[in-house]
Design a protein that fits this description.
Layout (H helix, E strand, L loop, with lengths): L1 E10 L19 E10 L2 E5 L5 H5 L1 H5 L2 H4 L10 H7 L7 E5 L5 H4 L9 E5 H8 L4 H6 L10 E5 L4 E3 L2 E6 L7 E5 L8 E6 L4 E4 L19 H10 L3 H17 L4 E4 L4 H9 L1
Parallel strand pairs: 3-4, 4-5, 5-6, 11-12
Antiparallel strand pairs: 1-2, 2-3, 7-8, 8-9, 9-10, 10-11
Length: about 270
């Protein structure tokens, strides 16, 4: 399988090194929306979708107040839809979309691929459709799902993968694509593992935000980004436990598994170079 690493949305909040580790505090930091486009024998698979075309056309209604808070910069050329077109594909070639979770910067492009099957953990889907509390009721942008996605949901029991339990093979997809539970940021948050034939990729979504958090000797993260992770988490204990397990996975199996998060531009550049 061939895997393309795409940036499908950019944030430029003020804060510099307090957010992305670069520049002074009035410098605009840069965060990305790292998505995957996977070529399989039966069509294309997207892992997360970024902002989507409608974020370019209707940024306020589509993205909500987080757009200004995070200084989101939706651009047509960065949408998954436009990048697919630039690669010579039709939007209908995307048969399946696998989501780490349903926040606006991960699921905003679903409406651009209305015929695709959308794979997500059942717990995450339930937070959208039958929220258990005010946090879940207010978290998601319901306009992004009004087109009626073709959901395929999964409960957690599954097989072992590098010490992570409850991994599921996905219905209708090659066994080289797996869903890995990484609760914490949201309760139904997942990672997506892809066997490229030359090793595994693990898209860890928002299980962490900064490459320094995987440093086995001195894990670190800029202070404002640390604060943001704390503010947006739904289960701190689960998030920190899974972060620790990701750090161990990265350190112990770095020749077999490449771990990356959704928003770190350093990790995206490294992936695109390879």
């Amino acid at each position: 399988m061939k895997v393309h690493h795409l940036n499908c949305g950019t944030f430029r909040p003020t804060g510099g090194r307090l957010i992305d580790g670069q520049g002074g505090p009035v410098h605009r930091a840069r965060l990305v929306c790292h998505c995957l486009l996977i070529e399989t024998g039966d069509g294309l698979v997207l892992v997360d979708t970024g902002f989507g075309l409608r974020a370019v056309e209707q940024p306020g209604p589509w993205m909500g107040p987080s757009r200004r808070l995070l200084s989101a910069r939706p651009r047509r050329e960065e949408t998954a839809a436009q990048q697919l077109t630039d690669l010579g594909y039709a939007l209908g070639d995307v048969r399946d979309i696998v989501l780490t979770h349903l926040d606006f910067d991960h699921a905003g492009g679903l409406a651009d691929f209305p015929h695709a099957t959308v794979h997500v953990y059942e717990r995450e889907h339930r937070a959208l459709t039958a929220p258990a509390n005010a946090t879940e009721r207010l978290r998601y942008r319901h306009a992004q799902f009004a087109h009626g996605p073709k959901w395929q949901t999964y409960a957690e029991p599954g097989e072992d993968w590098f010490g992570f339990r409850a991994v599921r093979e996905l219905s209708g997809l090659p066994p080289e694509i797996l869903l890995v539970p990484l609760a914490g940021h949201t309760m139904g948050h997942a990672g997506v593992a892809v066997d490229t034939g030359d090793g595994w990729l693990l898209h860890a979504g928002d299980a962490y935000f900064f490459h320094g958090q995987l440093n086995p000797g001195q894990p670190h993260c800029p202070p404002v980004l640390t604060m943001f992770q704390n503010l947006t988490q739904t289960n701190r204990r689960a998030r920190l436990e899974n972060l620790g397990r990701l750090r161990e996975l990265s350190a112990g199996h770095h020749n077999e598994v490449t771990v990356f998060s959704a928003h770190d531009p350093v990790e995206l550049r490294q992936a695109q170079r390879h």
